[in-house]
From TrEMBL:
Its cofactor is Ca(2+); heme b. Ca(2+) 2 binds at T186, D239, T242, D247. Its EC number is 1.11.1.7. GO terms for biological process: hydrogen peroxide catabolic process; response to oxidative stress. Ca(2+) 1 binds at D62, V65, G67, D69, S71, E83. Disulfide bonds join C30-C109, C63-C68, C115-C315, C192-C224. This is Peroxidase. Its main location: secreted. GO terms for molecular function: heme binding; lactoperoxidase activity; metal ion binding. CDD domains: secretory_peroxidase. Removal of H(2)O(2), oxidation of toxic reductants, biosynthesis and degradation of lignin, suberization, auxin catabolism, response to environmental stresses such as wounding, pathogen attack and oxidative stress. These functions might be dependent on each isozyme/isoform in each plant tissue. Coiled coil: none annotated. The record marks R57 as: Transition state stabilizer.
């Protein structure tokens, strides 16, 4: 009797264990999957190094809504809006790269590799090309069946450290994870509209944010003052030191009061996060190690595995639903 019960338990537990993410998930079903995605990223990176920042942002914005399920890739229709329509996602880019990689993968292995896994793999490859660490990406995610703009609740640029941490903690991420992942601002840009108050009238005081280096205030005023009809909302690099390289320079910059967005500067000022920032600023290897770990951890947030969700044939649309007869 005990043997029978144990066997029945294995029938239920074993499929769940097999369904977990694992490195090399496609080793048998699509052996070239990772190399195909890598080739697509390399082609794009050769002409556009900013793709590293774009993919990091896409991956983050995807995982922090419904989990890492590629719901951010779904196009809106005239009847149904998607996450792409949500305010924080209007400046997310790089979708065409994911589509290109998916098309190439589909040509090799039809309906096998998820769009969610392609985002995770492409981001890892772009981080490596941008000078960051290599990390093995566990795969086996499946694509979600819902994309709702009303569910997009991401940490904004004016949040305090404690406010931002509430959002990260809800996803089972630690404070160290949060500081590490915000270190992705070592690459990329911010539109002036996200920090204009800091260089003009911070919190209605009529003066710039006193926590920002005066030299940076003057520099950003020049950038934003160049707005025109063709470029109404200019951008500034988030990392004033090495803006297209994934390194620990961002943490050095915010310790010098050269954080562009308020949340970035808060990391160096707040007692909760100051020590973590100092550790990363003084130890490049520590940041690389923790960044790799935090990216893998983020990539596991609320993933769909096993028979959940679907493997989309086209990343921007859900698969046609089969009719029940």
């Amino acid at each position: 009797m005990r043997l029978k019960i144990t066997f029945l338990l294995l029938l239920f537990v074993l499929p769940l264990a097999l369904a977990n993410l694992r490195v090399g998930f496609y080793r048998s079903s699509c052996p070239r999957a990772e190399s195909i995605v890598r080739a697509a990223v390399q082609r794009r990176f050769r002409r556009d190094r900013s793709i590293t920042a774009a993919l990091l942002r896409m991956h983050f914005h995807d995982c922090f809504v419904r989990g890492c399920d590629a719901s951010i890739l779904i196009d809106s229709t005239s009847r149904t809006p998607s996450e792409k329509d949500a305010g924080p996602n209007l400046t997310v880019r790089g979708f065409e790269l994911i589509d290109e990689a998916k098309k190439d993968v589909e040509a090799a292995c039809r309906s096998t590799v998820s769009c969610a896994d392609i985002i995770a793999l492409a981001t890892r490859d772009a981080v490596l090309l941008g000078g960051g660490p290599f990390y093995a990406v566990p795969t086996g995610r499946r694509d979600g069946l819902v994309s709702d703009p009303d569910e997009v609740n991401l940490p904004g640029p004016t949040l305090s450290v404690s406010q931002a941490f509430q959002i990260f903690r809800a996803k089972n991420m630690t404070l160290n994870d949060m500081v590490t992942l915000l270190g992705a601002h070592t690459v990329g840009v911010a539109h002036c509209s996200f920090f204009l108050d800091r260089i003009t009238s911070f919190q209605g005081t009529g003066r710039p944010d006193p926590t920002m280096n005066p030299g940076l205030v003057a520099k950003l005023r020049n950038v934003c003052g160049a707005a025109s009809a063709s470029n109404p909302d200019p951008t500034a690099f988030l990392d004033q030191g090495t803006p297209v390289t994934v390194d620990n320079q961002f943490f050095k910059q915010i310790r010098l009061r050269r954080g562009v967005m308020q949340i970035d500067q808060e990391l160096a000022n707040d007692g909760l996060s100051r020590r973590i920032v100092s550790g990363f600023a003084s130890n490049a290897t520590l940041f690389r190690t923790r960044f790799a770990q935090a990216m893998v951890k983020m990539g596991r947030i609320q993933v769909l595995v096993g028979k959940a969700g679907e493997i989309r044939r086209n990343c921007s649309v859900f698969n046609p639903r089969r009719r029940a007869f």
